[in-house]
Amino acid sequence: MRELLLRQKQVLFFIIAGGLSAIVEIGSFKIFSTYLPQIFSQEQNFHGIHFPLSNILSTSCGILTNYFLSIWFVFERGKHSKKREFVYFMGVSFVSTLVSLFFFQIFYSFIFKDNIDLIFYTLSPEMISKISAILLVSILNYSVKKKVIFNG
């Protein structure tokens, strides 16, 4: 019973840490996708890739936030050294970033074409695509990080 409660607590903390990391990632994406196109005119469409720098920079902000929240609140240390654990975490995050960028491109190019009006805020197609990609990849992240990185 104690193990079940501990596991549920870990999932809850993972969701909270992921939610906070997603807020950092989405917020920084909003900032980057608003201001970077003013500096780099091709940021909105760089050879068919939409918002590449905004995605990479915001995802990096989210990854770093998630790493620190994960080691402080979510997972217990595994059998790996801190250095190796960090390298594994970044490796998994790099692959997750590529997967997330792929899904963002699919969502933005083919699925989400219109704004969604939430009365108090309107979500643009790029924000809806970013949020959807984050949600999809977060499930993969939890499984891999728990089994490979923090469980040893």
Plain-language structure description:
With 152 residues, the chain is an all-alpha fold. It has one domain. It is built from four helices and two strands; from the N terminus they run H-H-H-E-E-H. It has a two-stranded antiparallel sheet with strand order 1-2. The protein starts with a helix and ends with a helix.
Overall morphology: globular
Main sheet: strand order: 1-2
What is the mean pLDDT? 84
Helix count equals 4
Give a count of the beta strands, DSSP E runs of length 2 or more.
Answer: 2
* Assembly state (oligomeric): single chain
Radius of gyration: 17 Å
What number of domains? 1
For the report, how would you describe the main beta sheet?
Answer: 2 strands, antiparallel
One letter per element, helices H and strands E, the order comes to HHHEEH
Structural class determined from secondary elements: mainly alpha
Low-confidence stretches: none
Helix content: over 70%
- Approximately how much beta-strand content do the residues carry? under 5%
Protein name: GtrA/DPMS transmembrane domain-containing protein
Pfam family, one: GtrA_DPMS_TM
Transmembrane segments: 12-36, 56-75, 87-107, 127-144
Keywords: Membrane, Transmembrane, Transmembrane helix
